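Figure 2 data, in text form.
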Amino acid sequence: MNELDSEKIAGNLQHSGLEPAGNAGSADVVILNTCSVREKAVQKVYARLGTLKKMKSAKQDLIIGVVGCMAQLEGKQVFTKAPFVNLVAGPQKGHAIPGLIERAQTNGGRAIDLRMDDDPEPLENAYVLRESPRRAGVTISEGCNCRCSFCVVPFTRGKQRDRESANIVHEVEELVAQGFLEIMLLGQTVNAYHDPSSDRLTFAGLLRRLASIKGLRRIRFTSPHPNYFNDDVIDAIDSCPQICNQIHLPVQSGSTKVLRAMRRGYSREGYLATVARIRRARRPIALSTDIIVGFPGESDADFRDTLRLIDEVQYDCVFSFKYSPRPNTTALKLCDDLTDEEKGDRLKILQENQKLIQFNRNAAYLGRIVEVLVDGKAKNKFLLAGRMTDNRIVNFDGAEDLMGQLAMIEITGFGANSLSGTWIQ
């Protein structure tokens, strides 16, 4: 989602007459698009600003902007902590950044826009500078109506606003006409989508409508909430091969007690029932999740419940983090009685257990021939990398003109985090 926000900012800057710089050192404008979901992300922003301060000392007219969720949360404090910053703006402000730059240049060197409202207009963005020639993110909703006790998103992105289905379909049709093969539908609780137009499409209905677009090869979506995941969505995945057979279903904890404290709205048993429905699908569907360890009040027994859950579900991938207190959240009132070392130990145990699960699940792909969308250079000894429809990364050797293409790869090797193979065609 942040990547797409950055592409929107870049597209609007380009439309206003600016051109992308090769690097920060040669730029006239540097915008940091930020996250605030964890404290470490905020710390990284201020560390990066320290580097930019040195650049501005050598180039006084350099415009530095801080935008996104961290900017919304910190507000004017950004100017206090980093007085050389010129503009501060919250999320969904891609269309406003060129005007904010102009204001900063004519208004004593500063401009700020932290307005939050229910206006869906900022969701309709005509200018997007896409990083990939074949994969594109498409916003279908913005904001979140859930009130999880650990989450800062409602305070930074506001209430859920949904785009009209016709606008979404039109954007995807244009992307397909431009040669894009894969679309990622984006929303904080993407499967809570409700079409505000008279068509009244459900999320599953939107998936089926997009799957009917000729030339669209892959449809992904993230992140769904377990409470809104129904059989209609599973049936859409089953009946439409264009919808990728991969679901990211955040669980956060395997303990019902902790889930209640998190205000997730489901129990361990309820979540596992949803997983069971997904496993009964006619197509094999890969599952990934998010897990927070060391949430306030998490006992050894609660943590063991989480370990047992990942063993039962057999996730294909897990994104796991230590609990990080965030401003304005109700979890701040809870007793955070675990030390950082204890949280780190639990995180290490969970990640080691999950690594073995992934190693064994990836071993099952040895010898298979799979379709891969090639989208980058490999980070190891191989030349290229891409993703299967179930989101597994495959590394292989091949010609650079395969970039952005679909390729058939025979799997010849595997590890916990990726597969390797030989290009067939």
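Caption note: The CA atoms of residues 71 and 108 lie 20 Å apart.
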